[in-house]
Specification:
The protein has four domains: 114 residues; 48 residues, no CATH class; 37 residues, no CATH class; 131 residues, Serine Threonine Protein Phosphatase 5, Tetratricopeptide repeat (Alpha Horseshoe), CATH 1.25.40.10. 75% of the residues lie in helices and 5% in strands. A three-stranded antiparallel sheet has the order 2-1-3, with helices on one face. A hairpin with a 5-residue loop joins strand 1 and strand 2. The longest helix is centred in the last third of the chain and has 31 residues. 30% of the residues are buried.
Length: 412
């Protein structure tokens, strides 16, 4: 019995020595950047090393496998092996560094895939980056969802967005700014630098600013995906549940409004936009949207009021000018149709002159609107061409030549 015990012990010692020897050989190959040799060595001795009862040998083995897999861009295998390498105190610092490098490599690969329009692989990599550190890497889950949408994998996108909603992800980032006293230029700085600049006499107007929350967008996307999948009841429930939790959130009101417009329920859309305006009365986009929906519903008077209000709040909103002009000219085709239907009798001629004046009145209403828009941006050739045609019709040769010159400038 003593002899048998000694024999078994000897075999264990020999096996343990072989395991360490083969592992060290693979590690040497890796440190010498002989990656293929390291892989071959590990593969040839996989059964020996994986059969070890020595936790240190097994964790070192998985750590090395994780390093090799990262370099091979097999990120999931790398992460799986690095997780199996946990528990070895001697590897703790190296493991932390390796996981950080793995995360960086995953994200860089995902960015390259996204730029190449390989959205689904990019989404999968970003989700893996999130899983590595869910507390710190929530942004990667958000971008994983975005790329899943871009790749038309709506089921995966929905899962990710629901996960983001359930962890109350807002994506709000605080940005810091200071103004250089000498140059007067405002500069964005890091949070650490901000504290230093605040104490400096060379900088002033230190301020912080939070970016807009992504939460309403997340809820909107959940609802839109449900709508895309034909699950309209789930779409409305997602928005309404979010609104119950955040009743004053303008973004969520707009999200619900957008769902109703998708469903063709324009009256409810108008009600919600009006509710949003009560909370955000200086929002030009909301007035513009109300102008659009009222125009579609045939209420030209109210639509015009909303377009004009949008321009008053935001004079640079080009679409509001163009929509206002289109609204004014809405009846032009009917007038022209009437003019063309007339005969040559004295009564018809009088009616023709009357209709001609009516049409010219419409055109003249458009002139100041278009001139304002062109003063903002004379490269808006749609506006320039429209005004040129109006000038030609009402006989304003000077205005016609001015618009013609602008057209030629951009057509060269």
């Amino acid at each position: 019995m003593k002899y048998l015990f000694t024999l078994i012990l000897g075999l264990l010692v020999t096996l343990g020595y072989a395991q360490k020897k083969e592992l060290r050989q693979a590690q040497k190959f890796f440190k010498a950047s002989k990656i293929e040799e390291a892989k071959t060595s590990l593969s040839a001795n996989q059964a020996i090393i994986e059969g070890s009862d020595d936790a240190k040998i097994k964790t070192q083995y998985h750590f090395l496998k994780g390093q090799i897999a990262r370099l091979d861009k097999d990120f999931q295998a790398s992460y799986d092996n690095l997780k199996l390498a946990e528990g070895n105190s001697a590897l703790k610092a190296a493991l932390t560094t390796e996981i950080q490098q793995l995360t960086s490599d995953i994200v860089n690969a995902a960015i390259a895939q996204s730029e190449a329009k390989e959205f689904i692989p990019s989404s999968e990599n970003l989700y893996l980056a999130y899983q590595i550190n869910p507390e710190e890497n929530k942004d990667y889950l958000y971008y994983a969802a975005t790329n899943a949408v871009n790749g038309s994998d709506y089921n995966i996108a929905l899962e990710h967005y629901i996960q983001l909603r359930d962890i109350n992800y807002t994506g709000v980032v605080t940005k810091y700014y200071v103004t250089d006293v000498a140059s007067g230029e405002e500069t964005e700085v890091s949070a650490t630098e901000f504290g230093i600049y605040k104490k400096s006499k060379d900088y002033t107007n230190a301020r912080s600013e939070d970016t807009e929350s992504k939460y309403p967008e997340i809820v909107k996307n959940i609802a839109l995906i449900y709508t895309e999948l034909g699950q309209k009841d789930n779409a409305m429930k997602a928005v309404q549940d979010a609104r119950k939790a955040n009743p004053g959130d303008v973004g969520l009101i707009l999200t619900e409004a957008n769902i109703y417009i998708q469903l063709g329920e324009k009256q409810r859309y108008k009600e919600l936009i009006t509710e949003a305006l009560e909370k955000d009365p200086s929002n030009a986009v909301l007035y513009f949207n109300l102008g659009v929906v009222n125009s579609e519903q045939g209420d030209s008077v109210l639509a015009r009021e909303y377009y004009e209000k949008a321009i008053e709040i935001d004079p640079s909103m080009e679409n509001a000018y163009l929509n206002l002009v289109a609204l004014i000219l809405e009846n032009e085709s009917k007038i022209v149709e009437q003019m063309n239907s007339l005969g040559n009798s004295r009564a018809d001629n009088l009616k023709y002159d009357e209709l001609k004046k009516e049409r010219e009145t419409l055109y003249k209403e458009c002139v100041p609107v278009l001139k304002q828009l062109i003063a903002l941006d004379d490269s808006n050739l749609e506006a320039v061409q429209t005004l040129r045609n109006i000038y030609g019709t009402i006989g304003d040769n000077e205005g016609f030549m001015e618009m013609k010159a602008i057209m030629e400038k951009y057509e060269q």
